[in-house]
Amino acid sequence: MTTAINLQATLSHRALADSPKSLNANEAEAYKLSNHWLFSGLKPDLKATFFDLTRLVSYGPHEEIFHEGEPAFGFYLICSGKAKLSKRTSSGKKMILRVFSTGDVLGAETVFGGDVYDSHAETMEATTLRFIERRAFLDIIRESPDIAISFIETLSQEMRMFESKLVETAYEGSNERVANLLLRLSEKYGFENAEGVDVGLELKRGELAQMAGLTTETTIRTLRKFEQRGWIQLHRNRVVLTNTDAIKGLAELYLEPVASPDIMAI
Q1: 20 to 30 A from 10, CA-CA: which of 26, 226, 253, 256?
Q2: Dist. CA 170–CA 33, nearest whole Å
């Protein structure tokens, strides 16, 4: 059986009940990301086959893409817009793990053996994505091993990011966590304006708290402290960095190595 037939067969098993309405051909053409690493390493005929078998879907702001425990049939490539990935602890506390934007792969961890999504994904604004069926993608990998290497590199970067976040959560105080969060957001989404560097996302104080792994009250106090020092300016759902060097200096503290008990005992 050819790869094209395999891909068509596996895609036919994907039932998207109650899924968002697919966009029309003109809209689909506008969002083709043929230069993305998922497609760029493929031979032209295989690229066309794979691209045609993906499904373009559109969500409005604050709509659920998938929820924790839902069967995972594949993953998503974000074509436009932004989405957040979050998870709840056993005590019910919600934490935003990451914000995804154009070009990011959402749900990549489910490709190799993930039967269900282990977190919750929700759009932050109007968002367009390409759904890529897992079994179809595995067929493509067999034809193009270079994509497998790129995909593993992506998963490795995700792992390093979460390891860094774990260290930050375990060892750093509220000042360092909030500073690091603002710096990361400004580096990826930020833009300069007359006031300074806008972090580039509209986030409620509660969402900032969930991203930093802090309570809303602690996050608000920390932001106000930064504002009083002249480091930031606060608007309704936006934060502008007015002293990037001060924020960077505080954020980089968490990168310092943490001594083990054995070393500290010497």
Answers
A1: 26
A2: 38
Q: What are phi and psi of 65, to 5 degrees?
A: -95, -50
Tokens of 68: 């924790």
Residue with tokens 């959560």: 169
Place of tokens 């019910």: 92
> What crossing angle do the helices spanning 174-189 and 205-212 adopt, rounded to 10°?
110
pLDDT in tens, 99-121: 999 888 898 888 877 789 989 99
Strands 239-241 vs 232-234: parallel, antiparallel or unpaired: antiparallel
pLDDT digits (tens, 9 = 90+) for 30-79: 345 566 767 766 777 777 777 777 888 999 999 999 999 999 999 999 99
| Res 217 pLDDT > 50 | yes
Task: Please give the span between the terminal C-alpha atoms of the chain, in angstroms, as a whole number.
Answer: 65
Q: How far apart are CA 266 and CA 261, in angstroms?
A: 9
Instruction: Compute the distance between CA of residue 170 and CA of residue 108 in angstroms, rounded to an integer.
Output: 26
Nearest-10 crossing angle of helices 244-251, 174-189 = 120
Distances (CA, A) of 195 to 136, 198, 240: 48, 8, 7
CB contact set of 252 (below 8 Å; sequence gap of 6+)? none
